[in-house]
Write a structure and sequence with these properties.
Distance between the termini of chain A: 38 Å
Largest sheet of chain B: 7 strands, mixed
Shape of chain A: globular
Shape of chain B: globular
Number of helices of chain B: 0
Oligomer: heterodimer
Strand content of chain A: over 45%
Number of strands of chain A: 9
Largest sheet of chain A: 5 strands, mixed
Number of strands of chain B: 11
Structural class of chain B: mainly beta
Number of helices of chain A: 0
Order of helices and strands of chain B: EEEEEEEEEEE
Strand content of chain B: over 45%
Strand order of the largest sheet of chain A: 1-9-8-3-4
Helix content of chain A: under 10%
Chain lengths: 112, 116
């Protein structure tokens, strides 16, 4: 699986935007970029995913670089409930491999 | 989003006993479910991929005779930790794959296993 690189931790203030970066320089043409987050003592939660174009949903936005070697998850207004570990994962679409390989992710701390 | 439940949410057992953990997709059918294990302050590690009606596929280093997986229906997969030992104490999490256009995985809330 192509590897992703994320900062170990980031801090944000409540009600401010948060930009969580992810580098994936070895991404292949069929790899989708998935983001999940895990709150303490809970299972991961799907956040968003995309291929080439920027994506928006009710939780977040995903900005994908033109060369697809990096992406940024954007939380428009951080709340205390957004404090979690955020995982950026590449997964090839199609075929029979649907596995998700979790890295260490980014621990986001939100200050009140 | 799709809902996945796990039961029990936590369990404490004596060393040498077996523990069964259930994973259910509540509002969708899941032909593929996954089982993960997470030790404190570590990331999730995939243990096995469970396909309905067939044998599970285990990741390298995971003992299939110790971690028995059964996926008897499109909404239920079970993980049985046999002859549990203290080193098996961990957070076990399942996920289920949807067949929608997003083709995402939805995760259960996890089961905390403590082996005394």
């Amino acid at each position: 699986d192509a590897k992703t690189t994320q900062p170990n931790s980031m801090e944000s203030n409540e009600e401010e935007p948060v930009h969580l970066p992810c580098n994936h320089s070895t991404i292949s043409g069929t790899d989708y970029i998935h983001w999940y987050r895990q709150l303490p003592s809970q299972g991961p939660e799907y956040v968003i995913h995309g291929l080439t174009s920027n994506v928006n949903n009710r939780m977040a936005s995903l900005a994908i670089a033109e060369d697809r070697k990096s992406s940024t998850l954007i939380l428009h207004r951080a709340t205390l409930r957004d404090a979690a570990v955020y995982y950026c994962i590449l997964r090839a679409q199609g075929g029979s491999n649907y596995k998700l390989t979790f890295g260490k992710g980014t621990l986001l701390t939100v200050n009140p | 989003g799709a809902v996945v439940s796990q039961h029990p949410s936590w369990v404490i057992c004596k060393s040498g006993t077996s523990v069964k953990i259930e994973c259910r997709s509540l509002d969708f059918q899941a032909t593929t479910m996954f089982w993960y294990r997470q030790f404190p302050k570590q990331s999730l590690m995939l243990m096995a991929t469970s396909n309905e009606g067939s044998k599970a596929t285990y990741e390298q280093g995971v003992e299939k005779d110790k971690f028995l997986i059964n996926h008897a229906s499109l909404t239920l997969s079970t993980l049985t930790v046999t002859s549990a030992h203290p080193e098996d104490s961990s957070f076990y999490i399942c996920s289920a794959r949807t067949h929608t256009s997003t083709d995402t995985q939805y995760f259960g809330p996890g089961t905390r296993l403590t082996v005394l």
